[in-house]
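Issue 218. Parser rejects a valid record. Input:
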Amino acid sequence: MDKSVLVSADEFARFTEYQASLKSTIPSSLNESGKPTSCLVSSSSKWVIDSGATDHMTGDTGILSSFSSHTNLPSVTLADGSMTSVVGSGIANPTTSISLSSVLCLPNFSFNLLSVSKITRALNCFVSFFPDHCVFQDLMTRKIIGRGRESGGLYLLETPSMKVPKPIACSSTLTPLEVHYRLGHPPLSILKKFFPNFQSSSYLDCETCQFAKHHRVSNLPMVNKRVASPFELVHYDVWGPCPVISESGFRYFVTFVDDYSHVTWLYLMKNISELFNIFCSFCAEIKTQFNISVGTLRSDNAKEYFSHPFDSYMSENGILHQFSCAHHPKMVLPRKKIDTY
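Output the parser choked on:
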């Protein structure tokens, strides 16, 4: 037996207000945790990529070109099960590379729907969906012709109006020197092109750039670059061993260069042990032919120049031995180019 409930007029008025507030609530959807999340209520410029739509649809005739009215088109069944008529169709160009033909215009329709089945057939492309975006690619060339991004559980087609310019490099609160470090030490003139607020800067005090532009310290100028008489200073150097032995079996040679005249004596050697005897022969030849003794001998730091026979011979004949500092090849007379035949 049904029971009746009696309410007062005041209670009925409050109940009516409660029902009205439920109808005016913005629709929502539930996420995986069961909490309500906001959903897209209307879209005047955004295109929703819909894999369940059979046709492209919009309610805004302003975004359609070549719009034509129709009265004999069948009605469209919406997602909520209601039926609506089609007032016409046209062409939409949401991006420069995507053109949508036969877009149906529905009265009082708040969304722009992009049909996946329609666009894949019309543009001969395929759509790949990812957790946060999707891409449209040509079937033959695999060239990307469009992109979409996930927003509120829906994939929205990326249009020029949705692209927000991003900062080129970093925040403008950084100093010019900090930006100079982070971008790999570009000159100030380049930084001013990317950061207009750096126009007032006139100098970058970067120690690294200053050291990088330094040249090697040149040798101090010599007071007397040339000696006053022949054989006052003789340079000598040994070259070898040669990777290819000559027909006579020679692998080394030693040069003696007079600093005054730059005349060069060259002696071939089969073994480095012959150096001392050749040196004695050279000194004897200079003494006999020019009636003058070698005053100073200059060489590098090779160990063959510091043997006991060398030291003894130069001490007995009053010859001074000068040698260069380590890792300073410029202190030794440059080797001459010698052509061998």
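Fixed in the parser; the record now loads. The longest strand covers residues 144-151.
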